[in-house]
Every structure is written in structure tokens, then in C-alpha cells.
Amino acid sequence: MNTIPFDFHVLHTESVYSRGGEKYLYELLLRIAKTQRVHLYLHAISPKWRRLYKQANISVTQLWKPPRLFWLLLPLTLLTNFLQLKQILKRDSVVFATNFPMNFLAVLLSKRTICHCFEPLAIFYDPVRVASLSKFSQLCVAVAKLLYAPLDIWAYNTATILTALAPSVVPYILETYRRNPDIFLPNGVDTRFFSPKQQKKKGQITVLTIGHSTDYTIFKGTENFLAILVSFSRANIPFVAHISESIADPQIKKQYLSYTQRHHIHHQVRFMGNIDESHLADYYRSLDVFVYTGSVVSAGGSTASLSVLEAQACGTPVIRSMGDDQEIWEGKTGFYINPRNHRRASKVIEKFFRLSAKEKSAMRRAAREYVCARFSWDSTSKVLLETAKNLYTL
């Protein structure tokens, strides 16, 4: 593709953990930075992400953010960030921005904006997420929404181009912002790294190894996953569950551990902690099946999961929540479930276990082939770069 060198400015809230959104942004910018000058602006960044962006030759500027009382001091934050960015960005700068408040700053500063919506901001629009907060926090969120949701809606409707992950998120975007995405920028997988390099078991499985990933929020549905395991344990099928985490939460983890003890599955459930990216492929390869139980009523839980794609790229079939209808191929690379129906979901895991060795092997091959054919960081980054280039040449 013929590319014209230009400055590509990116506004994102933070890169601190190993969540899907942070990995998503890095993978796209890593590829765009090979031909363009990429500048990243955010409120917080960990030493790990700063090092990775430096290695990719991407400049990182940390914007001011109050150490606490973020929503209360947001007007001051916006003013400070606006004045700081105004010294750098021009009205004709090409700016790629993610969720509020970065989308708002982007459209204030530039007339050439690409605003990406992973999903409508959960803290404002997701009743399940809000209900998980304390009563005092719910009151604070209600006030913040009253004050700032109009700015968020205005920003996404003012953006030159609105992008989203996949068609599955469109109903949530339409409901909140009354605007259709112009372009989809789907998740991808580095299929050279996430690959089934180690030969999977050829014989029949005797002890089923089940994987799951959590960030201890309502979105991942780990409480449903554990309840499904309790139901599954009644089938008297030997199993072990390995749960990785992208964000630590000792208090919620303690509750989960207590739950496993009360229901007598604590010897079969192992919390693995945060698995470094360099060992993540080995983790997926060690599993017989990966189970994703994201909330079916929350956009943040049901519409997209990078772990689902990474597991399949490693040749591991996936059982996942209904919501996204593209990440797995029903019956070929895995199965869909309603994670709130614990008994029926456990029957689906049992169904997988009872597949013949030949059927499981075919599902592992299909999982790998499906992801390789459909989910590519190179393809997604090319779409984003072409979109940015078109804006630049307007």
C-alpha cells in the first residue's frame, strides 16, 4: 500500500494492565509505526507498556490527571489536557481517540478525528456494571453521568469517522449514541506467536483441563463460571480449572476461593495470577477447552474477547457466552452458552468432554484455521492506516 508519511496522534485513557483494549491498541500502533510517526497521549502508563512503545519507536506523552477524585475534578483535567494538547495538535491533525474523555478532547482539538468505540462507557450506560457498585458510588456515577454523558454523546456524533470492533456491538452503540459505525476495526491475533506448536493429546482425555480468564469484574462473569463448574462436578468427570487474571483484586479473589471451598471444588480450581505475555501461548496450549462467560447483557462482556481468539489460535476449542456471533464457529471450533444457565452450560462442557478423540482433534484444527482466516492485526491496522491517510489527504 502506498503510504504518505504523516503524524498520527492517538488519545487513550491508560495502558497499565494487560487487558484486551490495551493489547488491541498496542498491536495496531506497532504496525502503523512502521511507516508513520505515531504519538500516544494518555493519563497513565506502566513501565512495561512505556518500554514496549519505546521499542516500537512510538512517542509517549503522559497527560495530567488528579491522583484522586477523577470525576469531581474532570473539568480541571479537561482544561489542563486541552491546553497541553493545543500546543501540539492543530485543527488539521489526524487524531485517533478511544473512550471518553479522550473522544471529547479529540473533537475539540481537531476536525480530522477517528473515534473508536469499544463499547458504550460502562460506568455511564451499563446497568449491570453500575449495580455492582456500592450505593454511594452509584450516586456519584449518576451525578457524573448527568454532567458528562452529553459530552460523550456529542463527541461520538461529532467525530469525522466512528469505528467499532464488530457488528455485535452496533446495537449498543445505536441505543446510546444514535449513530452507526462507519468502519469496523476487528480484533486480531499474532498467529505466529499464538500457535499450537506443542502437539495436543491424541488420545481420549481423562482429566479435562478447563481455562478461564478474569479481571474480577461483572463483565467476565467468573461467578457464573464457578457456578457452572459446581454443576459440572456433579457429572463425576475429572477436571481441573486454571483461572488467569489480567487485573488483581485480592478481595474478590478471596470471595471466589471461599465459594469454591463451600461447594467442594477448591482442589480442582487453581488461580494462576497474571500470566506474562511471553508465557500466555503456553497457557492456552495446556488447556483442553477455554470457557468465556462474559455477561450476556453487557456490551463489555458479550461482544468481544481477545482471549477467545488467542486460545483458538493455539488450537484450543472455546465455549463462550452468546453475544458475539463471529468469534467462534458453533459446533466446529466450540460452542455457545448462556452462562447464567449453569446446568445447561455444564452440559455443554460435558458434551465437549464426551466427543471422540477424532472429533476433538478436528475441532482443534478448525479453531486454528478459523482464527487465521478471519482475525489479523495486519489487516485491521491497514484499514485504520488507510482511513487515517484518507483524512490526512482531505
How would you describe what is shown here?
A 7-stranded parallel beta sheet has the order 5-3-1-6-7-8-9, with helices on both faces. Strand 6 (94-97), helix 4 and strand 7 (112-117) form a beta-alpha-beta unit. It is of the alpha/beta class. The protein is 45% helix and 17% strand. It has 16 helices and 15 strands. 44% of the residues are buried.
Helix residue percentage = 40-55%
Which structural class matches the secondary elements? alpha/beta
Number of helices: 16
What kind of sheet is the major sheet? 7 strands, parallel
Query: In order across it, which strands form the biggest sheet?
Result: 5-3-1-6-7-8-9
Radius of gyration: 22 Å
Based on DSSP secondary structure assignment, what is the total number of beta strands? 15
Question: Multimeric state of these chains?
Answer: single chain
Quote the distance from N terminus to C terminus: 18 Å
> Proportion of β residues?
15-25%
Mean pLDDT: 93
- Which spans of ≥5 residues are poorly predicted at pLDDT below 50? none
Estimate the global geometry from the Cα principal axes. globular
